[in-house]
Amino acid sequence: MRYWVFFILPILIFSTPAFAQTLESDSFSDFSEYVLEIDGREYSISYAVNANVIAMQLDSESKSLLIGLDDTYDSQFFIGLEHELINAENNEFIILVDGEEVDYQITSDSESSTFEFFVPIGSEEVEIIGTHVIPEFPIGAVFGFVVMISSVMLFAKMKPSFFKL
Questions:
Q1: pLDDT tens digit string along 39-75?
Q2: CA distances (Å), 52 to each of 7, 69, 116, 137, 158, in order?
Q3: Using CA atoms, how far apart are residues 111 and 26, in angstroms rounded to an integer?
Q4: Global model pTM greater than 0.70
Q5: pLDDT level of residue 115 (50, 70, 90 thresholds)
Q6: HEC string of the chain?
């Protein structure tokens, strides 16, 4: 009998190269980088997608990150975001591609989250919605509040004559 087949067959099966390419979310070497400046601080956002990213904007009212795309082809979108920039309770984000909710996979550590989701050809906008974004309460509002309280305290202390009857 031909027993050599039992030796050659496993070698052929287990040594055949795999043609699928895996992209590890921890390895950002092939990723592009977008620098988003908020209140004088720069946040580096690493991403990979078969499209042109034309803009990223943080919307503190809707607690979301908006991403504008151009020349989009069917592809997986990988993006790494710091928890300080955008976060959600129990990692329950909502991701919309052109207004339609999509399924995503998330990998998180103590400092950041990496998202993976599909964007179809012709997509123009991605919105990642969380429960907290920076700045949650802008520093300008704090400064205005302090000025307002100080003014009230000064007027109360001075008791201007036009307040007297």
A1: 888 889 999 999 999 999 998 888 999 999 999 999 9
A2: 50, 6, 17, 32, 60
A3: 13
A4: no
A5: very high
A6: CCCHHHHHHHHHHHHCCCCCCCCCCCCCCCCEEEEEEECCEEEEEEEECCCEEEEEEEECCCCEEEEEEECCCCEEEEEEEECCCEECHHHCCEEEECCEECCEEEEECCCEEEEEEEECCCCCEEEEECCEECCCCCHHHHHHHHHHHHHHHHHHHHCCHHHCC
Supply the pLDDT for residue 6.
58
pLDDT at 19: 42
Residue pair 72/50 in contact by the 8 Å Cβ criterion: yes
Token representation of residue 28: 């950002």
Contact 32, 95 (CB under 8 A): no
The contacts of residue 136 (CB under 8 Å, 6+ apart) are 60
Name the phi and psi angles at 95, rounded to 5: -120, 125
| Whether residue 134 has pLDDT greater than 80 | no
Can you read off the two tokens belonging to residue 78? 């990988």
